[in-house]
Amino acid sequence: MDHIDGMRTFVAVIETGSFSAAARRLGISNKLVSKYIATLEESVGSTLLFRTTRAMSISPEGKVYLEGCRRVLNELDALNASLNASKGLRGKLRVSAPVTFGEVFVADAAMAFCEMHPEIEIDLVLSDTFEDIVENGFDVAIRIGVLRDSTLRARKLGSADLAVVASPAYLEKAGTPTHPDQLQNHTCILDSNSEAPRRWPFLIDGAPTAAVVDGKFVCNSASACLGVARKGGGLAMLPDLFAQQELAEGAVIRVLQEFTTPPIPLQAVYLASAFERPKLTAFVDHMKDAIALGKASCDASATSAQLQDWV
What we know:
By secondary structure, the chain is α/β, with parallel strands linked by helices. The protein is built from nine helices and 14 strands. The protein has helices at 3-16, 19-26, 30-44, 60-83, 99-116, 168-174, 222-230, 244-249, 278-306; strands spanning 49-51, 56-58, 90-97, 119-126, 140-144, 153-160, 162-166, 188-191, 199-204, 207-212, 217-219, 235-239, 253-255, 264-270. A five-stranded mixed β-sheet has the order 4-3-5-14-6, with helices on one face. It has a five-stranded mixed β-sheet with strand order 11-8-12-7-13. The longest helix is centred in the last third of the chain and has 29 residues, at 278-306. It is elongated. The protein starts with a helix and ends in a 5-residue tail after the last helix.
């Protein structure tokens, strides 16, 4: 066994919480993980992990050794990165993202990253459930909204504003609302992924206010809600980044722009030890820049739409 492999395996077992999860993260068998840990303990002459058939815990010596392992591995990764800097970024990144945001934004941004770095491979998995990035072997997850308490590190990529949109045809037929209170008189398209689909949040005079809305179409996809709105089915509230193309084309119009909404944080989450990897750092930086460009595009589209009178 290479001693470095043993150290990486030990760190992976601690960070994932089990031998099986560490094996998935490292791409090796459970048997090999057990062998690496046993050989490492024999090499250092100390018990690093206390384990039974039902539980595992780190020993006092293991805690001390863990910090040393992380320091050595981080320095080694940084050294390797500096030597390979001229060769560019390389390797695989496994990324998790919400379905709609992934389809309309993350996929294109990730593909652009691959084009910039031809030796990078990205495995993008879209799911509206909060994937356990440790258990499922993800390098990074793109998440929308306030994060739950977690041992993971997080970096803010930007934020999205909620936008109320409708097609020109719907607004011509039903009129354009000028105040959130008027939404109760309109057909609204409800996204069941939101915490309260029938209560749309606004900030009025700086105070959080919920407008009560109703409608006959409820769906757990913001993309599908946008599609219904585009076809004249009513008003939809969704993150503005989701509708940047439709806004730019004039397929939907943004209304109630003078009433701001609580910003929705967009964040990247990852293991603390993972961010030292240059490819992950570069990918997160790229996503942050892409979101900033997307926001600028949305703002430009919204400004253009304001020039049109749909009342």
